[in-house]
Design brief:
Elements: H1 2-5, E1 17-19, E2 22-24, E3 31-35, E4 42-47, H2 51-68, H3 73-89, H4 91-102, H5 106-127, E5 133-135, E6 142-150, E7 153-157, H6 165-177, E8 181-185, H7 190-202, E9 210-214, H8 219-228, E10 232-238, H9 241-251, E11 257-261, E12 266-270, H10 276-288, E13 298-304, H11 308-319, H12 340-355, E14 359-362, E15 378-381, E16 398-404, H13 407-415, E17 419-420, E18 422-426, H14 430-439, E19 444-447, E20 462-463, E21 466-467, H15 472-477, E22 480-488
Parallel strand pairs: 7-8, 7-10, 8-9, 10-11, 12-13, 12-18, 13-16, 15-16, 18-19
Antiparallel strand pairs: 1-2, 3-4, 5-6, 6-22, 11-21, 14-15, 17-20
Helix pairs in contact: 2-8, 3-5, 3-6, 3-7, 4-5, 4-7, 5-6, 8-9, 10-11
Length: 489
């Protein structure tokens, strides 16, 4: 293990769950293996915790909530600031952990750690800005004030594609608001969550406030225990729409507050008046970051017929410069996909497109000389809307380009989707920018930008992409309830 990660601080490598401020094995003694997707090498064995373990974590969070919910906003702010500072001080080690268990190149992993720490910094500042208001009434003798209170114990279910940032984006506002948490770490990438728990402890976050449960085999059981527990008052989940629907159903028995960030099918639109060079750069960032394994990745590219060839040429030139390989190698720009199931899905999308008349101009193949999880960054031309990749979330390094003629045509095409997480478009017409941004039926729009996520910006979707917002000042509201107090004077 040491020869793979080469951590400066080996104490960040944890292989036990973190419950009530203690490092714990599963009560059953069972473990599961964590593998490097680049090499298939087993790098750790973590506790395969079940409902017995998660009940203990929930009870620990309940006990901690009594005092933590009454703690001062300034003390919570200080904890989050210290946690962020420790993350940045240990950025290289954390990045190596992310790369080894997730596969993304070190440069991207370093960026994720900085991004993750930024959520803690943002919510450290928001903690001291949780405010109520005074309300005028129609009764002269009444005075009404409102206060925001912590919702209580929160269950946080996070994905593998951003193993650090998706935790801090949820735990940051929860702790800032005075809530205790139970994190169900992703089975593919539990080591990052456990390293964050170690740093949370060093930052002075009390035992029981930030609990981490690790599991693989018992994921459905653990999720059901969290969602049906009457102690847990809030669920935040990032993942597929299918699982989100199931969690909603399970949570209905206890009427929980929920935030769901689910699947996406983000269009990337290039109009005839776009800055093509900027559009290509934005497409590269949006589509190929994390090898296409993000919920806000551009899924299908829609390019106006008059600029189709220029845009395609520019994109192809950039993609040909990519270096696919092990994320620990300094020259690697794109790492492996998370597992072979992901590779199979991208391969299926490529084959379907070819059968329906598309042309693969770059990539399109598995790279067996590197390993079964490596897939070439791919560009497909002459794509049409009957192809599978235009209708399903790809979650891989495949960029398919569809041509269009009119604004009405492309808006009708993209708004037909049942998903509504993000969308991107490029245009230099300010009237069009406002018009299209308002008409796109999504929660986030990038106008002449391939990036929509920032701690200051509300993150979330509409339709089957979920509800609730993360990040921003709205993000902390998701972890509070409003109490009104009426005085007679």
């Amino acid at each position: 293990m040491e020869s793979i990660m080469k951590l400066s601080d080996e104490s960040l490598f944890k292989c036990k769950g973190y419950i009530d401020g203690r490092w714990e094995d599963a009560k059953s003694g069972e473990t599961f293996e964590v593998s490097d997707p680049a090499t298939g090498t087993v790098v750790a064995a973590c506790p395969d915790m079940n409902n017995l373990d998660v009940v203990l974590a929930i009870e620990a969070a309940k006990r901690a909530q009594v005092l933590f919910g009454k703690s001062s906003a300034y003390s919570r702010s200080k904890m989050l600031q210290d946690w962020a500072g420790l993350m940045l001080a240990n950025k290289e080690d954390l990045a190596r952990i992310v790369t080894v268990e997730n596969g993304k190149p070190l440069a991207e992993a370093r960026g994720e750690i900085a991004y993750a720490a930024a959520f803690l910094t943002w919510f450290a500042e928001e903690a001291i800005r949780i405010q109520g208001e005074t309300v005028r009434t129609n009764v002269d003798s009444h005075r009404v004030v409102t206060v925001r209170e912590p919702v209580g114990v929160c269950g946080l279910i996070t994905p593998w594609n951003f193993p650090a940032a998706m935790i801090t984006r949820k735990a940051g506002p929860a702790i800032a608001a005075g809530c205790t948490t139970v994190v169900k770490a992703p089975g593919e990438t539990p080591l990052t969550a456990l390293a964050l728990a170690e740093l949370a402890e060093r930052a002075g976050i009390p035992g029981g406030v930030f609990n981490v449960v690790t599991t693989l085999k018992y994921t459905p059981e653990v999720g059901r225990t969290i969602t049906t527990s009457p102690i847990v008052r809030k669920i935040s989940f990032t993942g597929s729409t299918t699982v989100g629907r199931l969690l909603c159903e399970q949570s209905s028995s206890t009427i929980k507050k929920m935030s769901l960030e689910l699947g996406g099918l983000a269009p990337f639109i290039v109009f005839d008046d776009a800055d093509i060079e900027a559009a290509v750069a934005g497409a590269v960032v949006s589509k190929f970051r994390a090898s296409g394994q993000t919920c806000v990745c551009a899924n299908t590219m829609f390019v106006h017929r008059s600029v189709y060839d220029r845009f395609a040429k520019g994109l192809i030139e950039v993609v040909k410069t990519f270096k696919v390989g092990n994320g620990l190698h300094s020259d690697t720009t794109h790492g492996p996909l998370i597992h072979q199931k992901a590779v199979s899905k991208v391969s299926e999308h490529v084959q379907d497109a070819l059968e329906k008349g598309a042309t693969v101009v770059v990539g399109g193949n598995v790279l067996p000389e590197l390993g079964p999880t490596f897939f070439e960054p791919t560009v497909i031309l002459n794509a049409t809307l009957d192809m599978k990749f235009t209708q399903e979330e790809i979650f891989g390094p495949l960029a398919g380009i569809v041509s269009f003629e009119t604004e009405e045509e492309v808006l009708a095409a993209v708004n037909r989707s049942e998903y509504g997480l993000a969308a991107y478009f490029y245009s230099r017409d300010i009237s069009r920018c406002w018009r299209v941004a308002e008409r796109l039926d999504v929660g986030m729009v990038g106008v002449n930008s391939g990036i929509v996520s920032n701690p200051a910006s509300p993150f979330g979707g509409v339709k089957q992409s979920g509800y609730g917002r993360e990040g921003s000042k709205q993000g902390i509201d998701e972890y509070t309830t409003v109490k009104s107090i009426t005085f007679t004077v």
